[in-house]
Amino acid sequence: MEAGFRRRRHRDRIPFTLVGDVDGEFVGTSTVVECDLPARRDLRPWLAAVFVESAHRKNGYGSALVRAACDHAVALGERRMHLYTLNWMSFCARLGWAETESRTYRRENVTVMSCDLTFRDGLRASPAVLRGQKTFGIFSRGSA
Question: What is the bridge-based pairing of β-strands 108-116 and 80-85?
Fold first, then answer.
C-alpha cells in the first residue's frame, strides 16, 4: 500500500490520492489517475480506488471522498472525469455520474461512467453531507 501512495503523492497534478479521516482516524481514500481502463486510453482522467473502511460505511464518507476528488480535479483544470464499476452505478448516478458504455474488462462486465465537472455547483464535499458526524477531514497525501 505504501508504494501506491508514493506513486500518487501529488497535490498539483494527476495522479493524486485523497485520504479521509474522522478525528484523526482513517476513514477511506479516493484516487484520480490518468487511465484506469487500458481499452479506453482516449478518456482521462479516471476516478479510481474509492475505499471506505467498513466501520465508517453508510455515513456519507464515500460520497464526500468522490466529491472531494472531483473538486480537486476541477481545481487542476479538469472538466470531465470517468470511472468504471461492476455494481455501484446507482451510487455514482446519485453523485452526478452518467453511464456511457458497458464492456468486458478482466472477464467482468463493467459499466463506464463519466461526470461533467463543469456542472458541480452545490455538490461540493462538505461536512454537511456527513449526517452530523464528528470532525471529518480530507487531505491530499504528500507534499505540494
Answer: antiparallel
Max Cα-Cα span within the chain? 41
Instruction: Tell me how far apart the alpha carbons of residues 129 and 107 are, in angstroms, rounded to a whole number.
Output: 36
- C-alpha 98/C-alpha 57 separation (Å) is 23
C-alpha cell at 122: 452545490
Q: What is the pLDDT of residue 89?
A: 96
The residue length of the chain stands at 144
Radius of gyration of the chain (CA): 15
Distance between CA atoms of residues 60 and 116, nearest Å: 21
What structural domains and CATH numbers belong to the chain?
A: 2-131 (3.40.630.30)
Q: What is the DSSP letter of 38?
A: G
The structure's pTM equals 0.79
The reported pLDDT for the residue numbered 62 is 93
* C-alpha neighbours within 13 Å on the C-beta side of residue 127: 9
Please give the average per-residue pLDDT across 65-82, as a whole number: 92
